[in-house]
Amino acid sequence: MNGPSRTITVGPLYLADAEDCARLERLLFAEDDPWSARAFRDALCSGHHYLAARDGARLVGYGGLAVVAGPPDPEAEIHTIGVHPDYRRLGVGRRLLAALLDHADALRATVFLEVRTDNEAAFGLYRSTGFEPLGVRRNYYQPSGADAFTMRRPARPA
Q1: Theoretical Cys-Cys bridge with 74: which of 33, 96, 109, 123, CB 3.0 to 4.6 Å?
Q2: CATH classification of 9-153, choosing from 2.40.380.10, 3.40.190.10, 3.40.630.30, 3.40.50.1000?
Q3: Over the stretch 97-146, which tens digit does the pLDDT of each residue have?
Q4: Beta carbons within 10 angstroms of residue 123's beta carbon
Q5: Catalytic residue among 114, 120, 132, 140
Q6: Among 40, 64, 30, which Cα is nearest to 146's?
Q7: 114 belongs to the catalytic site
């Protein structure tokens, strides 16, 4: 594989991307029951807001947001964000997160997520975008038994 280009685009995730997402999930989250292609297809068919990061035609990252409560107090949750290891530290995860949060902000939704307590890079990213830890979910990730921080970002005006 050639190195990452500097023209990463962020746009819609399509049903046709499900197999690539599942392959990337197995690479990134092998110890914690990675999502299947069917899980990605189900999320897309449920109307959740999923995005892809691409280097040309190659899927190099993805992220998903679900709206879990409507007005008058809308809430959303980040389902997942994954970035291929070759594309880390290039701002891909930050761009995916920003686009997901733009969608939540348009709804004026409070946003929740879980992140592994040992994932310092992701925790720092989330803190830098306004998320605050609420507590710890013990043994949240299975089968590894890793703990997760539950985090919340207050609603922002559109």
Answers
A1: 109
A2: 3.40.630.30
A3: 999 999 999 999 999 999 999 999 999 999 999 999 999 999 999 999 99
A4: 17
A5: 114
A6: 30
A7: yes
